[in-house]
Design goal:
Order of helices and strands: EHEEHE
CATH architecture: 2-Layer Sandwich
Number of domains: 1
Structural class: alpha+beta
CATH topology: Alpha-Beta Plaits
Number of strands: 4
Low-confidence stretches: none
Radius of gyration: 14 Å
Oligomer: single chain
Largest sheet: 4 strands, antiparallel
Distance between the termini: 16 Å
């Protein structure tokens, strides 16, 4: 069953370009990644939303996601108590609406 993950980030002022460039080639060869988008939700705030063939593919890609994060971690601000620099959630589709 199809799965999605989303990760919320807040980028340090002046580092938006660095953050975006760090993602330019992310996932191009990650098995099971169907589609991914970065959306800007506010000034210096972004979310990545990715679609995966299934939960197993998403889980298998986590080491790649962490390695990628480590490459641009210095561009990010803390999100708040207990969150660190990312707020990530994922799961299988339970109802397709359109």
């Amino acid at each position: 069953m199809t799965a999605f993950n989303t990760v919320r980030f807040r980028v340090k002022p002046g580092r938006d370009r660095d953050f975006l460039e760090a993602h330019r080639t992310v996932g191009q060869d990650w098995p099971g990644l169907v589609h991914a988008n970065i959306i800007r939700t506010a000034e210096h705030s972004y979310c990545i939303i990715a679609e995966w063939t299934d939960t197993d593919a998403l889980v298998s890609a986590r080491p790649n996601m962490i390695a990628t994060l480590n490459g641009f971690r210095d561009t990010l601000e803390e999100l708040g108590p207990g969150l660190g620099v990312t707020d990530a959630v994922s799961g299988a589709v339970v109802m397709a609406l359109k």
